[in-house]
């Protein structure tokens, strides 16, 4: 969780006007809410071993709120709180989208038309689409990031097979072993003065004491709702955040499907996926109430971790959620872990996101790759899924604003945010083409992989659904899945 939990507040809080103390509190709050949401999702949502954490998708509308010009205040901490309360209001309103779509069953009706063919671009680009956070993150401090990447590959892919007795140990604890080794190495470089006199950018990426979080974090602090004050509401900002919530919804659908594959569960029945989306909406609501400055969605890095460790246990994720809550309350302990250099996280992303991407490609085994219809849908959706966001992101970097640039900042975000998401563009395009291009032919149905997927169309068609997805405490009797 350290990637999104630390990187997002580190980027946003200083822009809001907050200092190290505020940054530490936001990181604590984000980790605390992530632990709560993960427990709720694993008990009452999809019941998959899915971690629910911060999402990069919500960063753009948050920055838009920061830049709106409505929060000028000579006191930076007062400005921080005003912006945080505006973000809270937008998140609270935006959460209703996923809550309504999920619990009403509307998303269930959408997902029923998903096929293995249209799932390939969606799930693949949920992973591969995050390539910009991989090696570019490693390269920010290559003397730390590259050893982490090489060691992780050696521990997880080579030592696990060379040393038979330690096979499960190296498989399951490769991340912990390698992060600990490289973290100590990075700390020795820091205290040895390797980065003294280097540019501030290098120090921020490489030093283990750069964040000022340990000093700023209290020993014990329990995050609570409305800790920054009562939320404020603005219709335009709420609409922009709602669009980000919809993009996160599409990306999370791909994340849930990838987790299903790596947890060795049967494909998600549409009603269970819809239930999970509803609880994810509750997660965004909690993010708004507690004031994390960021919305919640499925943690893609943890979906990749399932593949790396080969541990798809719901109980393991629930225990992990307990640790997340524990470390968020004991602020100093959490701050120590937050001192891990970002380049180490970038190296982990190279493996985790790759696994998620290839999890999407694995659905090709159910499709007919000799069909030109299949080739067109796959090629066109994946290519535009990479190409369109590349244009939007390049334009934003050069011009300082997106291609859609009107006087209404909220309207700009509503268009620019979805088209900057690789998974959203590819998934929506593949879904549309797959469900509109001469699909009634029986051969086309086989080409799409529908006969395989149909076996899991409802909760009761496979006896294993009860084992994987039934609610605890006999709640299925009151909230039956269809």
UniProtKB/TrEMBL annotation:
It is found in: Membrane. It holds the Pfam family Xan_ur_permease. One of its GO terms (cellular component) is membrane. The chain crosses the membrane at residues 38-57, 69-87, 93-111, 132-150, 156-174, 216-238, 281-302, 359-381, 387-407, 419-435, 458-476. Keywords: Membrane, Transmembrane, Transmembrane helix. It is a multi-pass membrane protein. GO terms for molecular function: transmembrane transporter activity. Belongs to the nucleobase:cation symporter-2 (NCS2) (TC 2.A.40) family. This is Nucleobase-ascorbate transporter 6. It comes from Nicotiana tabacum (Common tobacco). The lineage of its organism: Eukaryota, Viridiplantae, Streptophyta, Embryophyta, Tracheophyta.
């Amino acid at each position: 969780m350290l990637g999104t939990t630390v990187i997002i507040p580190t980027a946003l809080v200083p822009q809001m006007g907050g200092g190290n103390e505020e940054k530490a509190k936001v990181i604590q709050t984000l980790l605390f809410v992530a632990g709560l949401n993960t427990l709720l999702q694993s008990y009452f949502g999809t019941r998959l071993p899915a971690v629910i954490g911060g999402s990069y998708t919500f960063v753009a509308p948050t920055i838009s709120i920061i830049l709106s010009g409505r929060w000028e205040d000579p006191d930076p901490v007062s400005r921080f709180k005003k912006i945080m309360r505006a973000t809270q209001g937008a998140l609270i309103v935006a959460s209703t989208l996923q809550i309504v779509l999920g619990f009403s069953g509307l998303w269930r009706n959408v997902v029923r038309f998903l096929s293995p063919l249209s799932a390939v671009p969606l799930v693949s680009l949920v992973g591969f689409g995050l390539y910009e956070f991989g090696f570019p993150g490693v390269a920010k401090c290559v003397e730390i990031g590259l050893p982490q990447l090489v060691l992780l590959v050696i521990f997880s892919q080579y030592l696990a097979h060379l040393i038979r007795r330690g096979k499960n140990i190296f498989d399951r604890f490769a991340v912990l072993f390698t992060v600990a080794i490289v973290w100590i190495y990075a700390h020795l470089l820091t205290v040895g003065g390797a980065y003294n006199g280097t540019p501030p950018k290098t120090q921020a990426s490489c030093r283990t004491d750069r964040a000022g979080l340990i000093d700023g974090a209290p020993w014990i602090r329990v995050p609570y709702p409305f800790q920054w004050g009562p939320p404020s509401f603005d219709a335009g900002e709420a609409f922009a955040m709602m669009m980000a919530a919809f993009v996160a919804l599409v990306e999370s659908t791909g994340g849930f499907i990838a987790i299903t594959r790596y947890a060795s569960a049967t494909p998600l029945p549409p009603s269970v996926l819809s239930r999970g989306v509803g609880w994810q909406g509750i997660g965004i609501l909690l993010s708004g109430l507690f004031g994390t400055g960021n919305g919640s969605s499925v943690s893609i890095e943890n979906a990749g971790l399932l593949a790396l460790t080969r541990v798809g246990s719901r109980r393991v994720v629930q225990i992990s959620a307990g640790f997340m809550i524990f470390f968020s309350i004991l602020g100093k302990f959490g701050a120590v872990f937050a001192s891990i250099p970002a380049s180490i996280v970038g190296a982990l992303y190279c493996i985790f996101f790759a696994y998620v991407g290839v999890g999407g490609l694995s659905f090709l085994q159910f499709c007919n790759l000799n069909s030109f219809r299949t080739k067109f849908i796959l090629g066109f959706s994946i290519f535009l899924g990479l190409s369109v966001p590349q244009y939007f992101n390049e334009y934003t970097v050069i011009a300082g604003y997106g291609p859609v640039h009107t006087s209404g900042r909220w309207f700009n975000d509503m268009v620019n945010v979805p088209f900057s998401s690789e998974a959203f563009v590819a998934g929506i395009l593949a879904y549309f083409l797959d469900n509109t291009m001469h699909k009634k032919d029986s051969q086309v149905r086989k080409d799409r992989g529908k006969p395989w997927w149909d076996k899991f169309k409802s909760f009761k068609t496979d006896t294993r659904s009860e084992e994987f997805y039934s609610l605890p405490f006999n709640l299925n009797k009151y909230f039956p899945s269809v």
